[in-house]
Fold:
Amino acid sequence: MTSVAKTLLATLAALAVLSACTKEGTYPISGEECGPDDPVKTLEGADCYVPPAGI
Structure:
């Protein structure tokens, strides 16, 4: 296995382990509780679109 593949595998494994430590109903980074009025609930995929550079 190449070093790039090992790095990718280690990164994915760390992400899986760290995301498993998130309590249900809270945001993973801040730990704040999710509520019924959270503005992120109205977000759609198109809201997060970043156009390619140079356009």
Observations:
- The chain is about 30% helix and 0% strand.
- Residues 3-48 form one domain.
- Residues 26 and 32 are 5 Å apart (CA to CA).
- The first helix runs from residue 3 to 19.
